[in-house]
Design a protein that fits this description.
378 residues; single chain; alpha/beta; globular; 15 helices; disordered N terminus
Length: 378
């Protein structure tokens, strides 16, 4: 008995020592999190937009390693399947793999999604509902994006491209899948998590943001108004500021449902996101993280104990950092998410939510569909 007690104490000490090695900062990697988090995501489901390169691919790889069912969205199905094969090849002999290799093949799927088309977003959501009738959506990573498009370009629906892809498409996708995220699970009782990838580039958005929202209101009747004053980095900053406001307002609007919504800055990482930036400009940029470090914050926000998450909050380097937001976006998240519509109706976040809903409805799209609607599309 004494020997057993000693062995148990040694095991406990070793476990605590291993866990203590996980230091959360700018240098934290997905590998460190995976080795220390002791997580098993078997039976859980994740959607990752933009999951076929960069941060999305690394996040998909990490979740799949832990047994999660992962759906990667892609505009290029061939590329998506190549990435899927690469993830499986990388993981099937990995010592931390939580599931049989045969199940790994079944757990990773690629689905077409073009965030610049509201119709594509709707089609994707309907397909998910049909194929996952009984499944809860545990994780929705709003990760896809475009950056600093040199010249004004419209989405399929006529809205500015960076606004449409980085923000409005994700807003619509989330609204369509929200009941899946908040659905009760047969596997566990944790709330679903919606993780919006923003950026410190939100600081490039023009000030005051109130003027940007007024221009957006005019776009309801005249989408071409968004051409006025277009500038590659300013408009990228607008879309990233909107990601932050959306995550906050989403949490407030659904504070009584089983969801957690946060936004984050992953770091400055060299990925395909910089495809529109010249090599000369890139040579002047300082990249502060690699892919594993850049993906660490969104992975940690998916795995950290839910009662430790600041709902509606903004995360940097795996930690809550309201202080890293531009001053006009710094408010108390804990207070805001408890307020009524009447109390926040003049806030940037609430107004953005309402305008976004109107912009989508103006194009003839709805936010609900029935089971019979799903059957009609077959």
């Amino acid at each position: 008995m004494a020997l057993l007690t000693i062995c148990m104490c040694i095991y406990t000490l070793m476990t605590l020592t291993a866990r203590s090695e996980l230091v959360l900062n700018a240098e934290t990697t997905t590998t460190q999190i995976l080795e220390n988090a002791n997580a098993d995501l078997t039976g859980r489901v994740a959607i990752i937009t933009g999951g076929t390169s960069g941060l999305g691919q690394e996040t998909a790889r990490s979740l799949a390693l832990l047994g999660c069912k992962v759906i990667l969205t892609a505009r290029d199905h061939f590329k998506g399947n190549k990435v899927r094969s690469a993830i499986i090849r990388d993981l099937k002999h990995h010592p931390l793999l939580k599931i049989p290799v045969a199940e790994l093949y079944r757990n990773i799927d690629v689905k077409y999604l073009d965030l610049s088309s509201l119709q594509s977003v709707l089609d994707f959501a309907k397909e998910f509902w049909r194929e996952h009738t009984r499944d809860k959506l545990d994780y929705l990573f709003l990760n896809a994006g475009v950056m600093a498009i040199p010249e004004y370009a419209p989405t399929v629906d006529g809205y500015e491209m960076q606004f449409g892809v980085n923000y409005l498409g994700h807003y619509y996708l989330t609204r369509l899948l929200l009941n899946k995220v908040s659905q009760m699970s047969l596997v566990h009782k944790e709330p679903g998590r919606i993780i919006s990838v923003s950026s410190r580039a939100h600081q490039y958005a023009p000030q005051p943001l109130d003027a940007v929202l007024k221009q957006l209101e005019r776009a309801v009747t005249n989408p071409n108004i968004l051409k006025v004053g277009y500038e590659a980095w300013a408009n990228y900053g607008i879309s990233k500021a909107f990601n932050i406001l959306f995550a906050r307002e989403l949490q407030r609007q659904h504070r009584h449902q089983s969801i957690v919504s946060i936004s984050l800055h992953p770091g400055v990482i060299r990925t395909e996101l910089q495809r529109y930036i010249s090599n000369e400009t890139l040579a002047t940029k300082t990249f502060d993280k690699d892919i594993e470090q850049g993906s660490a914050t969104q992975l940690w926000c998916a795995l950290m104990p839910v009662d430790e998450l600041k709902r509606g909050g903004y995360y940097v380097d795996c930690e809550y950092h309201n202080d890293r937001l531009r001053e006009d976006l710094q408010i108390s998240d804990e207070e805001y998410v408890q307020k009524s519509d009447e109390e926040v109706k003049e806030s940037l976040a609430y107004r953005l939510w309402q305008i976004s809903e109107t912009l989508i409805a103006k194009k003839g799209f709805t936010f609900t569909f029935s089971i019979s609607d799903l059957k009609k599309d077959l």
